[in-house]
Amino acid sequence: MNTNIKRYIIILVAAISALTGLARATDDKTFERFYNLTPDKFLDRLNSYILHDQIDSAMMCADIQATKYGKGNLTRQGLEACCVAFRFMGLEYLVYFYNYQLAAENLLKAEQLADKYQFVIRAQIANDQAILAAMQNDLENNFAYNRNVLDSFVKAFYLSIEILKRQNTEIDRITLENSTLSPLYLALKFDKATEVTEVVKACREAQKRYGTSSNVVEVMCNAIDYYNDGDYDKAFEALQTPLNHPKAYSNQYYSQVQSMLKMAQYAVLLKSGKRAEALNLLLQQEQSFREQGLTFEQLEALQLIWQHYEADGNKAMADKYALQYYMTKDEFINKSKVGKMDQAKLNLELEQTRERISEMSYRQRMQGIVLWSAIIIALLALALLGVLWVNYRKTRRTNRLLYEKNVALLAANQELRPAAGAPDEKSEKPAAGEPTAADLDLMEKITAVMESSDEIYNDTFAINRLADMVGAHHRVVSRVINTCKGRNFNVLLNEYRIKEACHRLMDSEGYGSYTIEGIANSVGFRSRSYFAAVFKDIVGLTPSAFQKMCREQGGPNN
Fold first, then answer.
1. Backbone CA torsion sign across 366, 367, 370, 375
2. Distance CA 120, CA 80 (A)
3. CB 162 within 8 A of CB 179
4. Residue 252 has pLDDT above 60, yes or no
5. What is the rounded (10 degree) CA torsion for 39, 45, 47, 48?
6. Are the C-beta atoms of 87 and 124 separated by less than 8 Å?
7. What pLDDT is attached to residue 346?
8. What distances in angstroms separate CA 543 from CA 255, 408, 539, one per listed residue?
9. Nearest to 203 by CA among 223, 225, 176
10. Residues 483-493: what's their mean pLDDT?
């Protein structure tokens, strides 16, 4: 398949740039300073090596950072730098050294780190793993269809959307766009367009919500729709539009996706029965790949041409391109061998680097561990004692004042009013205008019931029952309470219940054997947590703190 590996290297560079910001590493060639680079300076150094095509130096830099993982004392930024390092090494082993095993191992480490700490780079890692799976499948199975590969790209697509929901940044939008192209291309190539209809739908929803899709992605979505409708001419025209108007449809990856559009057009022409046109397009694309030195993409084109002639019964041409295919494949394998020789040389340098890292890390730990541990422990202990003492004194003083205030209100038989409505209750706005004489008369009846009837402490007591007791409609009762008291029935009921709860908490003779939950139930609260929240909102203290202050101060019945 058309892997467009360079496109993903560009994405990696963009991701590193986004993480590093404006930070720039100092040009220090000593190993110690190189090892002690902070995460942001490491990323800037790695970015610099990539831009200048210094692959060995970039691998050395990434390997040094990766060796820090698992040694502890890493900040979240340091862990994220390790994740970037593992991902970069995985891509380099894939692209430059053709070592799929090491590529898979490093990408797996990057994936585990990203999943564990929820790094946003995990969507890009999933896409890299899908590319790796596709390349392995193409080489081992001669570019045959593999459902697992398509599923891997679809997984990366949905993961990109999940990341975009958390933070809508430019790099995340680019990641989603590139995660969309691969599954759509594969669906067209292998006549599986019906299997990506949900991907197209999700892509368009993301475009509306986040403004993500590029023109090329929208073209691919349209082509999928036309393809599924059986309108292959329109599907072909949709794919042709960005090729005819590159300036209008181009983005920074246009040159990389151009060949993908061409190969998708080949699949559409083949599906529509225009085999001659499809073959002509494929021959042009194979020549283009050969001229650009894209050996892997050329292999795919040669394989398709070979199969095309074989299906048409043209044995001579089929044999010709079969031979060319195997010769090109041998060339690609030879490149892999050269890459592995370079890798062996690099591995030796990396091993020497790791030995120096181990020695230096041990020396630094032994020099500083005793001194810094003692200093930090002493400072933390002093700071903790100071904070605890100040908070203790402040809490005691605040609780005492709140307790005295509420006891005085209870002694004077006054209402306990909260600073705001009780939790989970929506306070109503007071009705417009002053209460009428009839309102005041009804309010007196309501107050009499609330102050004298024990029925309000029943957990089933509701405004309908109160209305029956005062002989009025429940809507009238609700309006009068809002007009006269400035709050709704539930808030008023909670205030009376909390007032009674305070009396019972202070009454050690009558309720000394009750737990706080028992007292809560006795005044009509079914949930201890809700009782505690309402009590704290009205009284200013938790029930347990109020009870404790009562015992310490000597409540009325103690």
1. negative
2. 9
3. no
4. no
5. 170
6. yes
7. 57
8. 70, 17, 9
9. 176
10. 90
Distance CA 69, CA 179 (A): 28
CA distance 255 to 249: 11
What distances in angstroms separate CA 237 from CA 220, 231, 243, 259, one per listed residue? 11, 10, 10, 16
Residue 466, Cβ density class (10 Å: 0-12 exposed, 13-18 middle, ≥19 buried): buried
Q: Fill in the DSSP letter of residue 379.
A: H
- Quote the CA–CA distance of 444 and 13 in Å, as a whole number: 75
For residue 132, which phi and psi values (nearest 5 degrees)? Answer: -60, -45
Sign of the torsion formed by the C-alpha atoms of 514, 515, 521 and 525:
positive
Average pLDDT over every residue of 413-425: 49
Report whether 11 contacts 175 (CB < 8 A).
yes
Round to whole Å and give the CA distance between 216 and 176: 13
- pLDDT tens for 322-345 read 888 888 887 777 665 545 545 555
> Where on the phi/psi map is residue 520: left (φ > 0), alpha (ψ -120 to 50), or beta?
alpha
Q: What is the largest CA-CA distance in the chain?
A: 110
Query: Three-state SS for 123?
Result: helix
Compute how many other C-beta atoms are within 10 angstroms of the C-beta atom of residue 233. Answer: 12
Residue closest to 199 by CA, chosen among 227, 170, 220, 226: 220
Q: What is the pLDDT of residues 295-323, one digit of tens each?
A: 778 888 898 999 889 998 999 998 998 88
Distance of alpha carbon 40 from alpha carbon 25, whole angstroms: 8
Cα-Cα-Cα-Cα dihedral sign, residues 383, 388, 393, 398? positive
Q: Which residues neighbour 279 within 8 Å (Cβ) at sequence distance 6 or greater? A: 305, 308
Tokens 């986004």 correspond to 18
Distance CA 370, CA 64 (A): 26
Looking at residues 160-164, what average pLDDT do you find?
A: 84
Q: Which two structure tokens, joined as six digits, stand for 480?
A: 């009068």
Alpha carbon distances (Å) from 1 to 141, 260, 325, 435? 12, 9, 14, 80
Average pLDDT, the chain: 79
**How is residue 369 written in tokens?**
């561990």
Q: Quick count: other Cβ atoms within 10 Å of Cβ 283?
A: 14
Helices (H), 141-274: 147-166, 170-189, 197-210, 215-229, 232-244, 246-249, 254-271
Q: Which tokens belong to 116?
A: 């564990």
Q: Which residue is listed with tokens 């990539």?
A: 50
Q: What is the per-residue pLDDT across 379-390, written as a single tens digit (0 to 9) for each?
A: 888 888 888 888
Which of the two residues, 206 and 256, has the higher pLDDT score?
206
Angle between helices 197-210 and 170-189 (to 10 degrees): 160
The full 3-state SS of 364-375, as one line of letters, equals HHHHHHHHHHHH
